[in-house]
Amino acid sequence: MTSGDVHRGSCLCGNVRFEIEGKLGPFGFCHCTSCRKASGTAFTANSSVQRVNVRFLSGEETIKRYESSPGKYRCFCPNCGSPIYKEADDTPGVIRIRLGILDTPVGAKPLAHAFWGEKADWYDDPGGMPVYEAWAPVLKGKVKEE
Ligand SMILES: [Zn+2]
Ligand SMILES: [Zn+2]
After folding, report:
1. CA-CA 20 to 30 A from 67: which of 1, 2, 76, 102?
2. Is it the case that residue 63 has pLDDT exceeding 60?
3. According to DSSP H, which parts of 3-135 are helical?
4. Cα(11) to centroid of ligand 2, in Å?
5. What's the rounded mean pLDDT across residues 122-136?
6. Ligand 1 centroid to 128 CA: how many Å?
7. 29 beta partners
8. Residue 1: per-residue pLDDT
């Protein structure tokens, strides 16, 4: 574990820009129906980070929130539609950053497939990663505290 890591990200149009200090939490691929619809593709890759470690450089006040499940909010750029992060009432202080919008290397590999039971019929190859029909225990509750 190294200190001083800084990750940078932005939405497609550049309206929303941010920096994340410290390590990203472990991640996998989520194939749930909500993630498929929100992303428009087979799965999402999201990493938990402490909100205090995220600094918005622009566009934070424009971000729109959609409550996709009770108490869970998908937050996106209203101009280009890029998903930025998810937040939830039951995990204050933590947001789930969408890794596809990072401009800097993630520096880690995905650990598992979650919600394989809801996956698109056109995606079949787990690529050697463990597959979970719903929640992936290896991904739950692991948030770096730095
Ligand atoms: Zn945008
Ligand atoms: Zn999902």
Report:
1. 102
2. yes
3. 33-39
4. 20
5. 95
6. 34
7. 45, 113
8. 42
